[in-house]
Amino acid sequence: MAGNGVPDAISRAPYPRRPDRQLRRARWAIAAVFLVHGSVTGNFATRIPWLQDHTQLPPGQLGLALAFPAIGASLAIPLAGRITHRLGARTALRALLALWTLALALPALSPDLFVLCGALLVYGATSGMADVAMNALGVETEDRLGRPIMSGLHGMWSVGALLGSAAGTVAAHTGTDARLHLAGAALVLTLLGALACRGVLDLRSAPEEHPPPRFALPPRSALVIGAIGFCAVFAEGASLDWSAVYLRDRLGTDAGLAAACTTAFSCTMALARLAGDRTVARFGPVRTVRAGGVLATAGGLLIVTAGRPVQAMAGFGLVGLGIAVVVPLAFAAAARSGPAPSQAIAGVATITYTSGLIAPSAIGGIAQATSLTGSFVLVTTLTFGLVAGARVLRMPSRTARAGAPAAAERGSDLERS
Asked: Which pLDDT score is estimated for 62?
């Protein structure tokens, strides 16, 4: 698929450096965009129980509805590139982010399964388009700064998700109607997103550049890089959705401690991502992901052999620590992997969304056929895949990345508005 929200020449042609103050502003602006995007997810996740009660859906039908965000994202990702080609990167991101934040209010207005599935399809479609657009601008900002920032940007997304979850938890605890809570959050986040987008890089396609195709198969490089992202997102989804169940059902912990494990896992992910840029700058993406894979695999082994809750919780913490930087590095590697960054980023995004879609149900299916322990044997195997496949995230030399005169000769350079 194509359509990352930024034209294909991004990260390809040599650019004059912007003044440091403007670049710093762009760096913090895109970080704020990531935080707003994550806050939408956090607010929504806390009100899923309210949605189930409001629509009176049994667990199976609720699970079906919750698959629609990933379906919508996968279907809509190709549109982001064409929108950006027409509007420019900054305007497109502002519009797509606003659609995503406003879509937060839709699920709570749904009276039944059919309407809820439609609302979640729109919710996921707007999420996917905004996601790939902001990741592409993040990679471009990273390239212009000349130092890693993608892990920190995804760390800001995690912080946003935690803040959104905290706001949603307060709303649920005080008995606030989810329609009121999510509508209010949507308006506030739309305003914050619009303010944040004012400072991001403003890139436009050259007049002669052709718009990206509506649909195109991702390049082979994206499939290989996406496989690494798939492993990390599968482990993340399995841990987020099943860690509390694992502690409760397998180790007999109480509900409070089980829930605390999930929160601790999310905090570990956020902290590791915020600190990840320095690690990547020092050791490079390949060694960082390889070491992370070792940690995550060790965590998986602790989980499947756990006899006490503290051992399992330590295992989930190691998994979160090990996989934290993989997805941001996969997006960055995709943007630099070949002559069509838009197709590569969109391809990796589609693969990771697919992984997030199938992970919870796959874990449940394996658990029903065997046991939860058997499910996390699969997770452990996938985390070991990070060790084996980390080399595909190798960053090209600065000379190779800057040496794109051919792209300029083809008339695909970008122009600042």
From this structure: 80
pLDDT at residue 83, as a whole number: 83
Structure tokens at 108: 């709570």
Q: Sign of torsion, CA 341 342 345 346?
A: negative
| Residue of 153, 159, 156, 157 lying closest to 137 (CA atoms) | 153
Concatenated DSSP letters of 189-257: HHHHHHHHHTTS--EEE-TTPPPPPSS-PPPHHHHHHHHHHHHHHHHHHHHHHHHHHIIIIIH---HHH
> Can you list the pairs that 316-319 forms with residues at least 24 positions away whose Cβ atoms lie under 8 Å?
316/239, 316/243, 316/261, 316/264, 316/265, 317/264, 317/265, 317/268, 319/235, 319/239, 319/265, 319/295, 319/379, 319/383
Core vs surface per residue 50-71: b (16+ CB within 10 A) or e: bbbebbebeeebbeebbbbbbb
414 sits in which H/E element: strand 414-416
Take residue 76 and report the two structure tokens written for it: 């809509």
β-bridge mates for residue 416, sequence order: 203
Long-range CB contacts (within 8 A, 24+) of 168-174: 168/42, 168/43, 168/44, 168/45, 168/46, 168/47, 169/46, 171/46, 171/47, 172/46, 172/47, 172/49, 172/50
Task: Please tell me the predicted confidence (pLDDT) of residue 13.
Answer: 39
Identity of residue 85: H
Distance CA 163, CA 399 (A): 40
The pLDDT value recorded for residue 258 is 80
pTM confidence score: 0.78
The pLDDT assigned to 58 comes to 84
pLDDT value, residue 215: 57
How high is the pLDDT of residue 209?
Answer: 60
Residues of the chain with pLDDT under 50: 1-19, 398-417
User: What pLDDT, on a 0 to 100 scale, did the predictor assign at position 207?
Assistant: 56
Residue type, 364: G
Reference 322, options 301, 342, 341, 343; nearest CA is 301
Q: What is the spatial distance between Cα 377 and Cα 385, in angstroms, rounded to a whole number? A: 13
Tokens of 47: 């009100």
> Quick one: DSSP state of residue 147?
S
Long-range contact pairs involving 366-373 (C-beta distance under 8 Å, separation at least 24): 367/242, 371/250, 372/242, 372/245, 372/246, 372/249, 372/250, 373/250, 373/304
- Most distant CA pair in the chain, distance: 65
Q: Output the CA torsion sign for 377, 379, 380, 381.
A: positive
What are the structure tokens assigned to 177, written together?
Answer: 């109607």
What are the beta bridge partners of residue 415? 204
Q: What is the pLDDT of residues 192-229, one digit of tens each?
A: 999 999 999 887 765 556 556 555 556 677 788 999 99
